[in-house]
Description:
The chain is an alpha+beta fold and 246 residues long.
Amino acid sequence: MVRLMMFAPLGDAAVVVTLGRDIDDATMVRVRALVRSLERANESGIVDVVPAYTTVTVYYDAGAWGAGDRPVFVRVCDVIGRHVEKAEHAWPDVVPAKLEGEAVVREEGTPVEIPVCYGGEYGPDLEEVAAYCGLGGDEVVALHSGADYVVHAVGFAPGFAYLGGLPEKLRTPRKATPRTRVPAGSVGIGWMQTGIYPLETPGGWQLIGRTPLVLFDSGRATPALLSVGDRVKFRAIGAEEFAAWK
């Protein structure tokens, strides 16, 4: 079985490696395996590695690669390709998965429980989402908090995690006019995905609740609470418990 691996330049100091066509568990295994392999090796000249959905973007310092008979971009791609092969065929501790066939025994991400106070002042769009989906507000909460999610990407704002796994019944378009201020901790729906705003920023997602957890803190050893591959569960809480967290 031939597995997808495509390279594309991103400016003059980065390579985007595409490892799958679909956002699924098998592709997530490949993405996380390449990231871990590159991070463990600490290759000279590679300065950052950023996973997202079906890709890994590798940033490099062109000056650190020295002169050669081939372009730096090509040499970087060669190194990345070797790491893909290592991760998928030689390091069972990095990728405890069967990448071919029907079954995928994936390396589990860190499970994270996110308490959420749904509706009211914390989720001003809950009823709008319910009306769009033809559901009651309680049904939206039950579906949203009952699903299992995985972090597919982190971006837009520091620590903003894009979560896959939203029940199809809850898919709701973004707002036609984004808000200029969305409170930190707001939990929103943006069509096929759900996410949490880690900081107060503008935003156009439908807000259905808010968590008291701090999703991003630059003073922590690991500033972002969520990373690509993490598994997430939401737990519905009341206003009193929300206040107690604060």
